[in-house]
């Protein structure tokens, strides 16, 4: 299993992307957290923004399709997209994810 993250500017966008990713079976589960505060440099200027984090639980065979799908729908010019491999997943959860993805 992989975990992928992105952030968006509003809860409405986060909820829309989360629901659609699950509906499209691109992710077994998507959690929406926030607001979180992000501090960053943009165009050489330090800035901060309130954002909502989406955490996608995804099978390896779906990650390319999910990334393409998220990038096409994301409101940011340069969206965050971070993916990590899960070291251990409980067998029951992994079985559920396989059945629902």
Describe this entry's structure for a reader.
The chain has helices at 11-23, 63-73, 91-99; strands spanning 2-8, 29-42, 45-58, 82-85. It has a four-stranded antiparallel beta sheet, with helices on one face. The mean pLDDT is 97. The protein has a single domain (2-99), classed as 2-Layer Sandwich (Alpha-Beta Plaits). A hairpin with a 2-residue loop joins strand 2 and strand 3. The chain has 101 residues and is an alpha+beta fold.
Looking at the structure, the CATH topology is: Alpha-Beta Plaits
Helix content: 25-40%
Strand content: 35-45%
How many domains?
A: 1
Structural class: alpha+beta
Q: Shape from CA axes?
A: elongated
- Rounded to the nearest angstrom, the radius of gyration is 14 Å
CATH architecture: 2-Layer Sandwich
- Oligomer classification: single chain
Number of strands: 4
User: Could you give the order of the helices and strands?
Assistant: EHEEHEH
Number of helices, where a helix is a run of at least 4 consecutive DSSP H or I residues: 3
Write the layout of secondary structure elements.
Elements: E1 2-8, H1 11-23, E2 29-42, E3 45-58, H2 63-73, E4 82-85, H3 91-99
